[in-house]
Amino acid sequence: MAPESATLVRRPAILVRGGTLATSTGTSVAITPEGVTVGRDPSATLALQDSEVSAVHCELRATAEGVIVRDLGSTNGTFVGSVAIHEARLTGSCKLRVGQTELSFEPEAGKHPVEAELEAAFGPLVGSSPVMRRLYKVMSRVAATDLSVLITGETGSGKDLVAQAIHGASPRKDAPFVVVDCGAIPTGLAESILFGHEKGSFTGATQRKSGVFQNANGGTVFLDELGELPIELQPKLLRVIADHAVKRLGGASYEPIDVRVIAATRRDLRREVNANHFRSDLFFRIAQVAIDLPPLRDRRQDFGLLVERACERIHRADHARRIVAIIQARFENYDWPGNVRELMNVASVLASMEGGVGDESYDLLLPLEKTDDGTQDSRSVARSEDLAFAEAKRTFEHDYFSRLQDVTDGNISEIARRCGLARHQVRAHLRKLGLIPE
Q: Fewer CB within 10 A of the end CB, N or C, for the chain?
């Protein structure tokens, strides 16, 4: 899949302020916009031999406002001075403590440019915001390599498009691009689906069959929702990636393969590693390059290009300017929890309705309630501040899926598309909430 042509426009460079992080023994690392990790695991950027440090303890990332340090769900916490933090911005010299280790942070004297071009599109991705143009530059460099990539981001932000764009700009672009939804693989068939099986290896295995990795030989495997992969399969996946070889279920020997792996997840796998829900060695093997896709609310200046793309797809390009004006006026304070997928859906619906919609119909385009001032209705999250967490969560889910049922006339496929879940996951939620029969 070849990427769509990118439009380049010269703009001033993005300026960021980084720094260095050093141990008392003199080991130091430079903090870049891509970020560095601190932890006990040997694959961490700054690996510490401290039993009180978690495998992946914290992360530091250079931004325009300074260096952001974020604890990753560590067992013993991350401290700036004597203050335990979840996330903080560092702008001056200070001491950090993780476990029993003290780290020294020194900021750079000034800001430095990290790129000088603005790209309006990269493959199927569109957007000219600073955060997206930096993303395009990282992707273009990564595409030329065989490094494994981990894409993180909220539901609907376009993680699958990032994977397509990297494959489409790579030397493997003419080879297979095979997508696997790890959250939708039946548990009993997962090993067979991924690695193939031999005839007679289990009941129903009437013939030898290739798995995902054999079918993608020479190309790319995209493991969507990697965080849902059963933990018992993780060491087998690690061996496939590390050794470039696959053994079919019931087989006796390994077959060499040439496959690049790109994965995506909504979960923070570093926290999953610390909770022993995800293997640290597999995480670091797959996250050779980590790409964090920003939510739509952090790139609002891309609305115009995204709406144009939505209108072009339904052959209504001439409606784009009108739709942009409507969205800016009607949904100015809306946070777009469904991200790009939700915006594209709303724009497509509006562009398809030649006569427009009445004032009372705009809210029907969104799965979450909105108040008169355009903000999300807190009642859809919880009816009372006094609700216990579990009850508040169930109340939100019930209201959310009820609204989706109303808007889509109960169409499971459309609900799945809007909320970013697989069809079987939607059915499970609806049954659990009593919205469809068991």
A: C
pLDDT, one tens digit per residue, over 152-169 is 998 889 999 999 999 999
Residue ranges of the alpha helices (H) in 71-143? 130-143
The pTM for the full model equals 0.66
pLDDT recorded at residue 376 = 43
What is d(CA 362, CA 331) in angstroms, rounded to the nearest whole number?
9
Angle subtended at Cα 328 by Cα 325 and Cα 333, rounded to the nearest 5 degrees: 165
Q: Which two tokens stand for residue 426?
A: 């939607």
Give the start-end residues of each E strand in 287-389. Answer: 289-292
* Cα distance between residue 223 and residue 148, in whole Å: 11
pLDDT per residue as tens digits for the range 369-386: 444 444 444 334 333 344
CB 106 within 8 A of CB 95: no
DSSP H or E run through 98: strand 94-98
How far apart are alpha carbons 109 and 282 in whole angstroms? Answer: 37
Dihedrals φ, ψ of 178, to 5°?
Answer: -105, 125
